């Protein structure tokens, strides 16, 4: 397997689009439950913790880009092979692919669950899962350009939901946030860890990087995308805290959707129906990008066509959806993936980039030694 | 579609025809099985024989008599050789040929073949006539504002109009032929230093590679050369307005005109081009902007309104104030909302189709019968609710505002699956359809370019051309979606801000 990936010129996309990729892949099913999850750990300071999680993400993104810059045009799988050799590298990549598939699975399963709870209690899980998987497969068949387009249009098309979030502010009580910074370090770190499910997704930059046209500007746009996410998340958490009564937030499951319930339109009673339906557009780029990244890994490692990988992964994920029957099981799986995400998206890339950097540094030193000798 | 049409064109070696007139007649007759239409006129002088071969139906008789036969007959001193005859014939389009297939092709095209027995070659003179209608007002794309002239079926006439619109010497017209049997003439038109090479080459290659017996017109040619023939969305625009073509050429697009087809085909044309009307350009920019937005909104609502009605009614999310009136009007309706909506949509489609097929006067009556009588009766009979009639009428109107007839039809057809999905899954169903169409539109391309351009990939400067309409002084650059070679339309005025009372 080649370390560097040189896609055709026509497949490259502008670095500018990274804003939308990073933002759209971060915002997904996690954010509807984010305020509650963080609130459980850190109480009314949750919004500050979410902000810090965003800052931490930005640092990790910096690590990733620095690592990617050590190579000409490599992706995560290529770097693995370069650093760990063929066998160990591919083994680690394989583990990562499983993590990506698990993310894919958790996203559509969680969305199906939300739909079942809010709109169609009797809808069989497999039906909606089937449709979502097919949509993702259809998009991924179009390649990276279509997926980037999906993430762009998804961000543009759902931007208005942020504006709607200001409606609950009319009923807000701003005293809920006082006293500010009342949380200790231990709970804060725990809180940051709990945000991982919502904020992860940015690790996919390591897979799309070879397809970026102006690679030297990638860092800037990635940071803007993450900044936008951080801003959105902090806002959402802040509004949830001031909107819900003190213990109300810990009792709801999806505070964001519950908040949207109070929006009233003259010709439509239950606004959350629209919000839940529209959420499909929010999770669509997530599904596409995770499916794309994992199937890309499939074709890179096993050297078969990516189309085959797409179908195998889609069938595996669809089959797995039959094993989850109850709400508590789904919760378990989600928690598991969230934990895995914390290690796979937050910790591992930092370790890997340090290894890569050290390796390159050693190689450079050797070279200069040879030269001077 | 282009893929299965690819193939190599076979060429047979041709041979010279017989130099004896009687044999030549037989040869031509056996090549062309046309009966009495094929006419010969033989002249004799000093044992020399001369024959005129032509198709009765294709030749302009007075021209033939006056400009070909008369000079030869009257000129007694004339020596009957090809050079000498060519010298005296007052005909501009004259060529010397002796290959049998060339002769036959010429005769089919309406030329007269003049041959003197024993000569090594003969003369082919063009006195053909074409039957064509005069230039008329645009019918399918009727306008309130702007030039009314429309293309006709005559290629020469169409080119004449275009040449008069653009007097740029760089306006290129390449000759191509399509149809292995019909051999229709096609002109590939572009402005050399504006249109991108890749688009010109793309069109040329695709048209040249077509291996098909007959192409029925520019619209069909468009279907044959676009990349995704499965999609409901047309990927190339056809228009009958010369000024629309002129504007397109000036923006760097490539135009294809076909003989005997009153439509011009041009590309690359992204999705939003189909919602542009030339009137937007002729109007003041703010009104053009408003109308263009109105049209986009109409198309959007046309797709969305009926499904939304079905979703809202099936899964009862109506506020109490509206519930009363909706409930009252639906109280008599025994059907579920999906069925009701599909029924009425079907009815409207029938009306439209019937109106299009009938003569104008009957068509108007149809409209009244359909719209008022049946509409009112359907409500009274408890087939549908009043509100649905309003919604259906709105969405039908919305789809007719689209300037491109093809796109309007596509929008109407797309509605049916969405209504069914909305009936099954409510808002989720609509969203599934929405997501599908987003992906689908992203996957489409027009001559290799992105179909959703300039929205994706985002091209700020082009938005002023297609999505918005901005004052002309801000459009100093041609749209980069077309990759123009010469980007500059005019040099942007240097803005010098004036102070008050300066």
From TrEMBL, chain A:
It is a multi-pass membrane protein. Keywords: Germination, Membrane, Transmembrane, Transmembrane helix, Transport. Its main location: membrane. GO terms for biological process: spore germination. The keyword Transmembrane applies. It is found in: Membrane. GO terms for cellular component: membrane. The keyword Transmembrane applies. Pfam families: Spore_permease (PF03845). InterPro entries: Spore_GerAB. This is Spore germination protein B2. It comes from Neobacillus vireti LMG 21834.
Automatic annotation (TrEMBL), chain B:
Keywords: Membrane, Transmembrane, Transmembrane helix. InterPro entries: Spore_Ger (IPR004995), UPF0353/GerABKA_families (IPR050768). One of its GO terms (biological process) is spore germination. GO terms for cellular component: plasma membrane. Coiled coil: none annotated. Pfam families: GerA. It comes from the Bacteria. It is a multi-pass membrane protein. The chain crosses the membrane at residues 293-313, 385-406, 418-442. It is found in: Cell membrane; Membrane. Belongs to the GerABKA family. This is Spore germination protein, GerA. It comes from Neobacillus vireti LMG 21834.
């Amino acid at each position: 397997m080649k370390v560097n990936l040189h896609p055709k010129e026509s497949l490259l996309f502008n670095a500018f689009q990274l804003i939308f990729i990073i933002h759209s892949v971060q915002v997904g099913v996690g954010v509807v439950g984010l305020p509650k999850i963080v609130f459980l750990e850190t109480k009314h300071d949750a919004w500050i913790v979410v902000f810090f999680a965003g800052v931490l993400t930005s640092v990790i993104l910096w690590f990733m880009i620095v690592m990617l810059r050590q190579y000409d045009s490599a992706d995560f799988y290529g770097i693995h092979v370069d650093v760990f050799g063929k066998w160990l590298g591919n083994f680690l990549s394989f583990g990562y692919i499983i993590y990506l598939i698990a993310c894919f699975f958790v996203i559509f399963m969680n969305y199906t669950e939300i739909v079942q709870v809010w709109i169609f209690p009797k809808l069989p899980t497999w039906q909606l899962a089937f449709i979502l998987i097919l949509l993702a497969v259809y998009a991924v068949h179009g390649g990276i350009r279509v997926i980037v387009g999906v993430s762009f249009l998804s961000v543009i098309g759902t931007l208005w939901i942020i504006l709607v979030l200001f409606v609950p502010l009319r009923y807000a009580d701003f005293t809920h946030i006082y006293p500010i910074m009342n949380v200790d370090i231990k709970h804060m770190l725990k809180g940051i860890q709990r945000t991982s499910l919502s904020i992860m997704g940015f690790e996919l930059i390591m897979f799309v990087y070879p397809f970026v046209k102006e690679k030297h500007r990638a860092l800037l746009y990635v940071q803007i995308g993450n900044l936008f996410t951080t801003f959105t998340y902090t806002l959402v958490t802040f509004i949830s805290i001031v909107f819900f009564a003190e213990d109300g937030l810990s009792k709801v499951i999806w505070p964001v959707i519950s908040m949207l319930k109070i929006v009233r339109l003259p010709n439509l009673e239950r606004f959350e129906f629209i919000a839940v339906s529209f959420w499909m557009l929010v999770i669509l780029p997530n599904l596409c990008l995770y499916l794309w990244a994992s199937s890309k890994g499939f074709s890179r490692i096993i050297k078969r066509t990516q189309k085959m990988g797409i179908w195998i992964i889609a069938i595996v994920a669809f089959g797995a959806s039959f094993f989850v029957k109850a709400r508590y099981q789904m919760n378990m799986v989600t928690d598991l993936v969230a934990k895995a995400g914390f290690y796979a998206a937050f910790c591992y890339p930092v370790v890997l980039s340090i290894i890569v950097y050290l390796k390159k540094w050693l190689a450079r030193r050797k070279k200069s030694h040879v030269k001077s000798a | 579609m282009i893929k299965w049409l690819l193939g190599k064109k076979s060429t047979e070696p041709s041979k010279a025809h017989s130099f004896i007139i009687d044999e030549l007649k037989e040869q031509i007759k056996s090549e062309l099985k046309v009966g009495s239409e094929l006419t010969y006129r033989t002249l004799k002088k000093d044992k020399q024989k001369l024959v005129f071969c032509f198709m009765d139906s294709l030749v302009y008789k007075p021209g033939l008599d006056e400009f070909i036969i008369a000079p030869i007959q009257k000129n007694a001193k004339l020596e009957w050789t090809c050079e000498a005859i060519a010298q005296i014939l007052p005909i501009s389009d004259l060529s010397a040929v002796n290959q049998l297939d060339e002769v036959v092709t010429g005769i089919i095209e309406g030329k007269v073949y003049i041959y003197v027995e024993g000569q090594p070659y003969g003369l082919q003179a063009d006195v053909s006539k074409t039957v064509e209608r005069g230039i008329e007002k645009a019918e399918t794309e009727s306008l309130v504002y702007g030039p009314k002239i429309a293309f006709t079926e005559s290629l020469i006439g169409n080119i004449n109009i275009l040449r008069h619109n653009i007097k740029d010497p760089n306006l290129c017209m390449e000759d191509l032929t399509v149809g292995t049997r019909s051999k229709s003439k096609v002109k590939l038109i572009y402005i050399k230093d504006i249109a991108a090479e890749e688009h010109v080459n793309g069109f040329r290659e695709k048209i040249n590679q077509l291996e098909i017996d007959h192409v029925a017109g520019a619209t069909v040619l468009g279907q044959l050369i676009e990349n995704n023939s499965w999609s409901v969305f047309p990927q190339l625009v056809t228009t009958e307005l010369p000024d629309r073509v002129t504007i397109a050429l000036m923006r760097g697009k490539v135009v294809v005109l076909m003989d005997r087809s009153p439509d011009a085909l041009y590309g690359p044309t992204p999705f939003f081009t189909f919602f542009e009307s030339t009137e937007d350009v002729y109007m003041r920019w703010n009104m053009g902007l408003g109308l263009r937005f109105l049209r986009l909104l109409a198309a959007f609502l046309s797709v969305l309104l009926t499904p939304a009605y079905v979703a809202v009614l099936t899964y009862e999310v109506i506020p109490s104030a509206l519930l009363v009136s909706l409930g009252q009007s639906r109280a008599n309706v025994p059907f579920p909302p999906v069925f009701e909506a599909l029924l009425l949509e079907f009815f409207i489609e029938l009306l439209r189709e019937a109106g299009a097929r009938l003569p104008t006067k009957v068509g108007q009556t149809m409209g009244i019968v359909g719209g008022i009588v049946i509409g009112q009766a359907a409500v009274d009979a408890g087939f549908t609710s009043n509100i649905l009639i309003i919604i259906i009428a709105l969405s039908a109107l919305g789809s007719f505002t689209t300037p491109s007839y093809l796109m309007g039809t596509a929008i109407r057809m797309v509605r049916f699956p969405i209504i069914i999905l909305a009936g099954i899954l409510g808002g989720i169903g609509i969203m599934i359809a929405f997501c599908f169409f987003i992906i689908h539109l992203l996957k489409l391309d027009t001559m290799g370019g992105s179909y959703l351009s300039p929205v994706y990939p985002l091209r700020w400067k082009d938005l002023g051309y297609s999505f918005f309409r901005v004052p002309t002084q801000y459009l100093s650059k041609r749209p980069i979606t077309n990759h123009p070679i010469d980007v500059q339309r005019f040099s942007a005025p240097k803005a010098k801000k004036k102070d008050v009372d300066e």
